[in-house]
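Both lines are given unchanged directly below:

***
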Amino acid sequence: MFSGIVEEAAEVVALKQEGTNLHITMRCSFADELKIDQSVAHNGVCLTVVSLPGDGTYTVTAIQETLDRSNLGGLKVGDLVNLERSMLMNGRLDGHIVQGHVDQTAECIDLQEMEGSWYYTFKYATDPEMVKRGYLTVDKGSVTVNGVSLTVCEPTSDSFKVAIIPYTHDHTNFCRIQPGTKVNLEFDIIGKYIARIAELGA
């Protein structure tokens, strides 16, 4: 479980395809604190540490399902990836409940600077069946974008805006998001459970 509070935007230093799997090697400041089998969220995708060479890098493996559902399949060496280690159960939940299970991708369709902050608009594919399962956003609700816990504003049936403060902009890969950039979305798990209960009539 995660909270959507990104610890670091880390650099991709190597990518290796093996069959349908992609091995992603990252360089980050806390690499030497990690352990094999530990879970780390990468742009909101929970992946398992599989290698620790001891040089300030580590490697995780993404399977085809993950590559198809997220933006990790489009990574290039030099890209920045938002990282978050799993939440300590005795810590504060500063963001919201994030599972690390990306639902789908969205595209940035607009970016506006507003007196030191930024408003990003994201558009995503949807249909009535997805809405029934809770794949939607609501005004002032929570959404995870590239692993960042954010508050929704001005949602439509297939888009929403988020406001990004300078700290978040500078310390996550939001600094590189432009119109046309693909991002990962995880919709609020509480909304999904409510939608499922309503569907079952429970």
Observations:
- The mean pLDDT is 95.
